[in-house]
Write a structure and sequence with these properties.
The protein has 246 residues and is an alpha/beta fold. 35% of the residues lie in helices and 24% in strands. The longest helix has 16 residues, at 208-223. α1 crosses α8 (208-223). Strands 1, 2, 3, 4, 5, 6, 7, 8, 9, 10 and 11 form an eleven-stranded mixed beta sheet that branches. β6 (127-131), α5 and β7 form a beta-alpha-beta unit. The radius of gyration is 18 Å and the shape is elongated. It has two domains: 7-101 and 198-241, D-Maltodextrin-Binding Protein, domain 2 (3-Layer(aba) Sandwich); 103-195, 3-Layer(aba) Sandwich (D-Maltodextrin-Binding Protein, domain 2), CATH 3.40.190.
Length: 246
């Protein structure tokens, strides 16, 4: 399990002598629900602890309530690393490791909805609640031709927006949507997924040494079984360990 870091990688990853880790608390699959800010629990915080252990430095968590704020902190080097989905738009300002988990994203529709399939959703007049600047918001912003996205700050707020404004669909991570469907009589989660969200570790752009180290760290964490063990430990359903990077 040991993995030595080059002096250049360690200097980039922990310039202050500690590893400042950005954690997005709105992603309930990676951070346990109700997890305290400052000492979060879950798959991402546990992976961060393992990263700090291999670097030989203490970990300091920096908590955020949305993916967009996490991405901004990585971009601006307000954190040394951040656990966030890799996405084409973010890749302009963030260097990503390979993915350690894949999370399917789809839609929840209310009782009596005429929307029966993913293809039905992209129609004029259809309004979709979405967590603003999430990976799937960025993807849908590029790919939807007719439907309208209505954004909220964070996943819980997007659920509230969907129910309060009686929108036509809620975009989100499938495991979470299945949970929400149980609370809304007649609501359905559409089959399939419009994208697989690639959960990765990001660092500010141009930090080549740390980016290479993180890619190696993630590949080792997958091949050693660590990621699978963390998924089981935290009882997370509906996610898959990402395949080895090509």
């Amino acid at each position: 399990m040991s993995q030595s870091a080059t002096p250049a990688a360690r200097a980039e990853l922990a310039p202050s002598g500690k590893l400042r880790v950005g954690i997005n608390h709105s992603n309930f699959l990676l951070v346990n629900s109700g997890s305290p800010h400052g000492a979060p629990k879950g798959i991402a915080p546990d992976l961060a602890l393992e990263l700090g252990k291999r670097l030989g430095v203490p970990v300091e968590y920096v908590s955020f309530d949305g993916a967009g704020k996490t991405a901004d902190a990585i971009r601006d080097a307000a954190v040394d690393v951040g656990f966030i989905a890799s996405e084409a738009e973010r890749a302009n300002v963030i260097e990503f490791s390979s993915a350690y988990l894949e999370l399917p994203a789809t839609y929840l529709v209310p009782a009596g909805s005429p929307l029966r399939s993913l293809a039905d959703v992209d129609r004029p007049g259809v309004r979709i609640a979405v967590s603003g600047r999430s990976a799937y918001d960025l993807y849908l912003s590029r790919t939807l031709k007719n439907a309208q996205l209505v954004r909220a700050e964070g996943i819980p707020a997007s659920v509230k927006l969907f129910t309060d404004q009686k929108l036509d669909a809620l975009a989100g991570l499938k495991p979470g949507l299945l949970t929400e469907a149980q609370k809304l009589p007649g609501a359905r989660v559409l089959d399939g997924h419009f994208m697989g969200v690639q959960q990765s570790i990001g660092v500010p752009k141009k930090r080549a040494s740390s980016a290479k180290y993180l890619r190696d760290f993630v590949e080792n964490a997958k091949s050693s079984g660590l990621v699978a063990q963390l998924v089981e430990k935290h009882g997370v359903k509906g996610v898959i360990v990402a395949p080895p990077a090509q």
